[in-house]
Amino acid sequence: MSFVEYGDFIQDGDVAIIYLGHDSMMPIKVQQGAQTQTRYGVIRHSTDLIGQRYGSKVTCSKGGWVHVLHPTPEIWTVSLPHRTQILYTTDISIITMMLELKPGSIVCESGTGSGSLSHAILRTIAPTGHLHTVEFHQQRAEKVAEEFKEHRVDHLVTVRNQDVCKDGFGVTGVADAVFLDIPSPWEAVGHAKAAMKKQGGRLCSFSPCIEQVQRMCEALADQGFQEISTMEVLLRVHDVRTVSLPLPDFGPESSVQTEPKTKDEAPPTSAPNHPSFTLKTTTPPREMPGHTGYLTFATKPRT
Ligand SMILES: C[S@@+](CC[C@H](N)C(=O)[O-])C[C@H]1O[C@@H](n2cnc3c(N)ncnc32)[C@H](O)[C@@H]1O
Q: Which residues lie across from 168 on neighbouring strands?
């Protein structure tokens, strides 16, 4: 599913993803009269993009082709312009689930950073929820607000340029969930509690270092949070493939012809009709993405 209000067809003003390969994607702003240069040649927005269905294959000026995709939060996470460290899909998926986010949820977040997590939250809480996100770096706050507008999700989010540890989230008693990704989250726990509903709710804090986790857990317990737990989520991607292998030669009794009939014939292993069988193989990962951070979850009880 794409950003909330994007249709099936590419429109002037959309941010579309030019897919050159699974490790090469390029977000572009679609504009009448504009052109985009790719390694396969030029794409002319007016004729090649506007009005085409998302997912279409587009031929570039040098004859090569690309696919043009909807900008989903998952694709945005791997193609967004980085202003900060960002959260990736493995952590994001656990955060969304463990914060119990759903359409209509009211969420407070800080810092906004590059908006990677924010886009995933927005898709989950749409169409009736709201995200209050706080970022104390002015240019980052302005840039992310501009991106929310371009992605047509700005009606679902309020960006505040302030220090969450001093000034809080700018709302009181409304949040179902709070998420923190700042260096000293323990300084924001009081503000997080104040932002949350009387009926209680869930909190998550992301920290790269275990010392930050220890201080945060103490602060959460001091403020009356319950069910405090910390986890680290590591991803192992297994490569499952179908391979085709030649059948073993069972000797002269075998009804299978494995010898070439004439000297001009290709050897049996490469003959198109040489008997073979297919099988699924699974290769565990030889390398894994390393540590990103610890996720500390807690529940604010009803007050
Ligand atoms: C690691 S980035 C957040 C990345 C974000 N979760 C994402 O997925 O793109 C941390 C951000 O927190 C901001 N920040 C740090 N301390 C803050 C504070 N006290 N109040 C508001 N923002 C803060 C920083 O400026 C930075 O942009």
A: none
